[in-house]
Amino acid sequence: MTQNIDKEIKSQLKRWHYSAISLHSTYIALGVISVVSSVLVATFTEELEPFWIKVLAATSATSVALIKTTDVGRKGNGFRQAHRHLKAAELRRFDTGEKSNQDVIKAFAEAEFMIGDVVIAIRDSPE
Fold first, then answer.
1. How many CA atoms lie within 13 A of 54 on its CB side?
2. d(C-alpha 113, C-alpha 92), whole Å
3. Contact call for residues 34 and 73 (beta carbons, < 8 A)
4. Do 12 and 86 form a contact (C-beta atoms < 8 A)?
C-alpha cells in the first residue's frame, strides 16, 4: 500500500511540475506576444498596411484577454506551490523515517486546494 502511495505521489509531483512549467511558459509567451504586437503597431503605424495594424492590434488584445480571463499565471503559481508543498511533506516523512502516509495524504489534499479550480473571469464593463 505504501509503495502505491509513494508511486502516486512521485507521479503527481511530476505532473504538477510540468503543469507549472507549461502554464508559466504560456503566460510568458502571451505577454511577449502582447507587448511585441503593441510595440509594432505603435512604432510602425505609417509603414504598416491597415490590415496588418488590425491583425497586430487584435493579436495584442487577444493575448491580454486570454491572460486576464484565464488567470494562467495564478494557475501556474498554484501548481508550483502545490508541488513544493507536497514535496516538502514527502521529504519530511523520509527524513523522520515515518512509515505512515497520513501527513503526506493531508499535504496532498492541501496541495490540491492550492491549485484551485479553473475560473474564467469575464467582467462586464462599468456603465
1. 3
2. 20
3. no
4. yes
What's the distance, CA 36 to chain centroid? 22
CA gap 12, 19 in Å, rounded: 10
**Structure confidence by residue, pLDDT tens digits, 51-98:** 999 999 999 999 999 999 989 999 999 999 999 999 999 888 877 777
pLDDT tens-place string over residues 16-34: 999 999 999 999 999 999 9
Kindly state whether residue 126 falls inside one of the protein's structural domains: no
Give me the domain span that covers residue 35.
Answer: 2-115
Give 28's Cβ-side CA count (13 Å radius).
Answer: 8
Q: Which three cell numbers stand for residue 48?
A: 504598416
Number of domains forming the structure of the chain: 1
Distance CA 31, CA 40 (A): 14
